[in-house]
Amino acid sequence: MRLSRSFLPTLKENPAEAQIVSHRLMLRAGLIRQTASGIYAWLPAGLKVLRNISQIVREEQDRVDAQEVLMPTLQSADLWRRSGRYDAYGPEMLRIQDRHKRELLYGPTNEEMVTDLFGQTVKSYKDLPQVLYHIQWKFRDEMRPRFGVMRGREFLMKDAYSFDVDYASAVATYRRMMLAYLRTFQRLGVRAVPMRADTGPIGGELSHEFLILAPTGESGVFYDAALEDQDWLDEPVDTNNPDALEAFFTRVTTPYAATDEMHDTVAWDAVPDEQKREGRGVEVGHIFYFGTKYTQSMGVSVSGADGGQFFPEMGSYGIGVSRLAGAIIEACHDENGIIWPDSVAPFRAAILNLKSGDAVCDEMCEQIYAKAPEDFLYDDRPERAGVKFADADLMGHPWQIVVGPRSAKEGRVELKRRATGERQELSVDEALALVLAG
After folding, report:
1. Which of 17, 140, 254, 339 could disulfide-pair with 92, CB 3.0 to 4.6 Å?
2. Among residues 232, 170, 228, which one has the least CA distance to residue 194?
3. In Å, what is the CA distance from 388 to each residue of 110, 178, 356, 380, 393?
4. In Å, how far are 61, 104, 129, 181, 206 from 169, measured between CA atoms?
5. Which of 348, 362, 350, 347 is CA-nearest to residue 404?
6. Could you give the CA distance from residue 68 to residue 186 in angstroms, rounded to a whole number?
């Protein structure tokens, strides 16, 4: 894409309404624009980030045999009355009526709908387990939406829902999903810590939330240093082996970790002093096991091996996709702007023409652009070099291919790595090879 023809409206100054780093940088880098309180339009670069995050989430869900569906944003109030949650959920739920006065709601979550869909289809224990997920927009009417996409009213989320034949199978699914989550965050280029958590209004008895460690995070985090090294996630885990899953689960939950709210409920004193760490974190995911809470309340049963009926055991697994875009920025930025991990960056590299109109610079940039894949951004604007450098750092491209008059005459470019600031002078082919190798 040529920057001169793109819809990437960057801002030089920090917007007055933006209180946290990710909100400021998302507005300044042209990723989002607010359309109403807590509701944002995602501009082309921001949408690319959402799609990149969604794809990684999708691949890791598929890897543990979850199946993708797409449920509607609008739900019938009758479904929620069957579970008993319609009146109990609270003012965060947006309740509406259609022209026939039928009561609907804009879904804040999908336990009721997926349980009903499951009940319409699955009738026998032989069809279990089932894990269904979708990536869909949701709405919760926050009283005070703030911090940009970190606490908005409309948000993109991945929900997965599991149905198992018994408790042991449900716990195995829960552990399998925890592995998928940790692998997801690793691929996104951030370190996430699993924390034992309250189940909240969704209910249940087993729950963990995942916090990305970030200096500007919203929650205080207390954790064992053993959780900092997650390279072992690259090791294979037989997800169909309950013993292997239990060993994995023990490995990630034995070091104690907690947020401010849960600090007094974990054995913090059991952690050696030299292993204790404190920091800040941003919640980006939450998983629950809640048994037969919804299948039983909604009357959804299947036939068992003995011919009788039973209520399947359920779990729910959420990742905030749009929230992750902000959380990654909170964890990956400096005073000059965003530092995107390679896996989620809207553009892999920016080609910076430091002297547009110079025949040699223009020709070399056009040659690079012709060889480059679609995720390269060519800054062909007739702007000063300083402006181009500042915008490239602000937008956080992992690589910058810098073309200036002197180096262009020698057939070379300067390649800059955004994360480290490292610069090296290379031939065009060498620079492209290095960028494409990741």
Report:
1. 140
2. 228
3. 45, 42, 11, 9, 9
4. 18, 34, 8, 19, 14
5. 362
6. 22
Widest Cα–Cα separation across the chain: 82
In the chain the domains, ranked by start, together with CATH numbers, are 3-338 (3.30.930.10), 349-436 (3.40.50.800)
pLDDT (tens, 9 = 90+) of the chain, 438 residues, equals: 999 999 999 999 999 889 899 999 999 999 999 999 999 999 999 999 999 999 999 999 999 999 999 999 999 999 999 999 999 998 999 999 999 999 999 999 999 999 999 999 999 999 999 999 999 999 999 988 889 999 899 999 999 999 999 999 999 999 999 999 999 999 999 988 888 876 665 555 688 999 998 887 888 888 888 777 777 777 888 888 888 888 888 888 776 867 665 555 556 677 788 888 888 889 999 999 999 999 999 999 999 999 999 999 999 999 999 999 999 999 999 999 999 999 999 999 999 999 999 999 999 999 999 999 999 999 999 999 999 999 999 999 999 999 999 999 999 999 999 999 999 999 999 999 999 997
Answering whether pTM is above 0.85, one says: yes
Tell me how far apart the alpha carbons of residues 378 and 97 are, in angstroms, rounded to a whole number: 48
Give me 57's structure tokens.
């989430």
Question: Could you give the CA distance from residue 375 to residue 348 in angstroms, rounded to a whole number?
Answer: 6
